[in-house]
Prior knowledge:
By secondary structure, the protein is α/β, with parallel strands linked by helices. 24% of the residues lie in helices and 21% in strands. Strands 1, 2, 5, 6, 7, 8, 21 and 22 form an 8-stranded mixed beta sheet that branches. Strands 10-19-11-12-15 form a 5-stranded parallel beta sheet. It has a 3-stranded antiparallel beta sheet with strand order 16-17-18. Helix 1 runs parallel beside helix 3 and helix 1 packs across helix 9. The longest helix has 26 residues, at 283-308.
Amino acid sequence: MTLPIRHAPVAIVGGGQAGLSVSYHLKQRGIGHLVFEKHRAVHAWATQRWDTFCLVTPNWQCDLPGHPYDGPDPDGFMRKDEIIAYLKGFVAKVQPPIREGVAVRRVERRADGVFSVQTSEGDYTANEVVVASGGYHTPIIPRMAEKLPGSIVQLHSNQYRNPAQLPPGEVLVVGSGQSGAQIAEDLHLAGRKVHLAVGDAPRCARFYRGRDVVTWLADMGYYEMTVDDHPLRDGVRDNTNHYVTGRDGGRDIDLRRFAREGMRLYGALEDVAEGSLRFRDNLKASLDQADRTYNGINAAIDKHIAEKGIDVPVQAPYTPVWEPGAPVTSLDLAGSGITAILWCIGFRPDFGWLDASVFNGAGRPKHRRGVTREEGVYFVGLPWLHTWGSGRFGAVGRDAEYIVEVIQRRLGADRLALRVAG
């Protein structure tokens, strides 16, 4: 039996905070649409975060459309269960026309200019398509993982939940971005012996001169800076996030302090060969560069304080509390005591289902504030789509509103044409 093809003026792919924000603004304008989510709304937050996960930005930055944070701790950092409750509250407010458990398998433009949207529950058509599925799709696990013995438990960061999940023994965490640094801390605080292969992620202070660094940067206008105004321009989209934590009220993550307390630090993991882990001789350079970024951000805050004549306590620059000794570039795996490896080296985007000329040679979307050169195709929720907060709760709603304004102009004002049909 052939099912009839249903039509939606706007098809939104992804039911996280980005897709829900687009739905909110479309509903405000009476524009018909459907949200397709292959799992359930806000699925990733509930299923791909560890148990002690919390925001690294203060709660006051959570400002989804029509749903600002209104809890008792605006300067705190919501934990996993609180984040999920916050997002479920947003879903309840938006009441989106969402098709949960429906995967979008292919989107392509037909000869008549309308988009064909092929899904796991049948075919749809749409005038406009908004990609709101984020950019973190395929967990990165390097080919060297295949050389590890089967006795070693291997997990990606999105599979890690808590230390008890891992077998007894020591743990190697590969990568020191936000996830790697926080998971290494989680294991360290639980008393596990941790080995950390340090990458090139920068770090920043949690608090400086009496205030959260995020608050200082907000006052300085950093979060209003657009990608076009940033010194790196589009290159900022490839930057690794600074590592810091909101855990226990918020604090710095200082890998040097962890090392002083017994964590083993190495340079970047390069290979597994002849039963040994091979590390790059760049640990000291990576730590030094992270500290330069840390002190550089604080120096920019110092300048702002001086220019504004703000009376706050003076704070000295960070000085290292530990220095690496002779570099360790090889570690015998059998004798190391390592029984588990956590790969915390990110994700690759996968937009293979979208047949549109909107990607660069690396498979990343080309756009200007989410609007692509192919009419009717948009992106929302990507890091630095327009500003630093584009991939976060703080600014995704503004980006969604901008996209919806573009869509409204394209579709016109005929509300009869803006209904979902079929």
